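We give the entry.
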Amino acid sequence: MNELPLTILLASVLATAAPLIIATLGETITEKAGVINLSLDGSLLLSAMIAFMVGFETGSFTLGFAAAAVTGAAIALLVGWFGIYLGQLQVAVGFALTLMCKDLAYFLGNPYSRLQGPQLISWKIPGLSEVPFFGPVLFQQPLPVYLGLLLIPAVWWYFYRTGRGLELRAVGENPEACYTRGIDPRRKQILYTIIGGALVGLAGAAFSLGIKPGWGRPQGIEGIGWIALAIVIFGGWHPIRVALGAFLFAFLQVFGIVLQGIWTGIPAQVFQMAPFPLMILALVLINLLQYKGVQRWLDDKPGLALLVDKLRGAPPRALGKTFHPD
């Protein structure tokens, strides 16, 4: 493979991964605080529709992204309010919102179906975009790509290098202990649920205004929310590993398109669906690593055991559990 196709392939992987990185990091923030937001699939669709509708009517990308962020935050607020303050099952609330938001997106977005709307273009960084190989890959991308790449170290730094990040992780692990030290776990949880939801909304806007421009049925991002939830588990609730999982899924999607052009005799649907079962298989393998029998088998394989230890991750201990101050 010569340089030009390789640069196009890598640039496509970065562009495809960007919305998924934003969404998965948003869900990582939410789950690190102990809340499960299962509404991602519907939230992405509704945010994508709202972003396209606002962008189409106003001609402003900024307003489109802002509206999508507010939409995602509002949906997450419902999950948080019912789950944190009313004590309802977070999984059930999120699942119901997923179905509702999906139908609402297609119903409200029907007038905008197949219309030619605004589309993000690549933004070249002066002085860096002309660098051989790295310039076309890293520095000639739409703005969501830069946002996704910046979020990875930012979320990591916030989690592990700030006092507020320590509080966030403590609330997700032991809200009772936090409460005894004067921290209001429910206030922290609702705050980070809203922030995570806003990032999911931005990811929806990145899809409809950039990666998959336009609106229609099907939109082409159905199921991405479930994949994002799986990637958070796949990445062990660690922002860097979660981002690597998003890159892996994006690579599988892009590579499937490449293979589709090579093996033309195979139906296109096979390549379109292949990344989903492959990600699920990877998730199952990661889950198998938790069993004691597998761990004993790795005892005499130090190199492989080290790799497995890097992949293994444990969920926050209070994840999905309602904290009652009384």
In short: The chain has a mean pLDDT of 86.
